[in-house]
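Quick one:
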Amino acid sequence: MGVFFCAGSAGRLAKKANPAVGDDILWNAGMTSRRSRTLLLMLALLGIRFLCCLTVSAQESKAGNLTGQAKRGKELYQRYCIGCHGVRGDGQGENAPYLDPKPRDFTLGLFKCRSTPSGSIPLDSDLFDTIGRGVDTTGMPRWLPLSSHERADLVAYVKTFSDRFSEEKPDPPVKIPSETPDTTESIQRGGEVYQSLKCFECHGEKGRGDGPSAASLRDSKENKIVPYDFTVGTRFKCGVSNQDLYRIFMTGLDGTPMPSYLSWVTPEQAWDLVHYLRALQGQNATKPKETAHKDLMARR
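Output:
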């Protein structure tokens, strides 16, 4: 308003002080006022456009050499995801009451399956992999029929539900060292780690998910949550390979009682624990091929 006053009043004040000032001065002052208004309007429009560009940038995803766009992802979300995760991405879709565990609430910015440390938002590639891999023992299926570009677009749109993705940057991924030999001695040591970390309190002495604390476990939204049964199947919630299982130990499953053991065990102890849990699986199933994870990566 100060700009408008100065420009519009300058000529009038000048004429009042000096009657000899011609009307052309007043006309020029009026033109200056109008130009000032036009300039401010243009700056405001440019500012809005700039903010829109920032918003569009924040609604992108990067997975390998793919760039996902939220605008395209929204259409896919409305077709495939809205029934469980809801219009607002809060996990309150029409199917949610019938699902156990409940659908992920994207607005919290908390995700189980990540390569980043506990407390960090995931990498775009983490969300990309989850869509393709699914989450075992939940209602989240493997969306392999979707193309790689469609999955990247979905990731971009999912990120729009939480301000964390525009306000925070993900921490560097947890490093996974080379696997130690899977031997009888390693399995035995892994059993000792299982006991020392008190994994049995949730997962049970035999890894069947029936520990003494199992019935009382709740997630971050106070929904009942069941510990994983390691003796069933060949997969885990967040992967299929030994590397995936190692990653789960070290990152934890945010939003659940499963903590990160990054500061509690050495890499060697973590690999021993991997081998022990694989042995529990081996009592009822054949050990999966490590190529399964590589196949998933190749489909990016």
